[in-house]
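Batch manifest, entry 17 of 40.
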Amino acid sequence: MDLFLQRLFDGLTNGSAYALIAVALVLIFKATTLVNFAQGEQAMLGAFIVLQLWNWGVPMWVAVLVGMLISGILAAGLERTFIRRFDPADHLPLVIITLGLFLVLNAVAAIVWRYD
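Output type: structure tokens
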């Protein structure tokens, strides 16, 4: 019974994380009518930052707060630097930019944390 409760808690935890990411995707799409392919990689980068801080001995709640702060600053910087420069009515350049950011953020995470 203990194993069942542990698995149930793990499933609810993972499901709530997926639900939060899905709500964020829908919220951004409804606000901008643009699918941001880099949004998942930004979430992954935030999670890796939290994991790295936790591995360095930072308390989990501080690591989560710092990870959220760094992720928010990164997302705002990427939006101001790359997305805002283009006409929002023309979706093709914006989709290509978000795909490029997806690849760049994935490569940065692979360089810093490796694929192990």
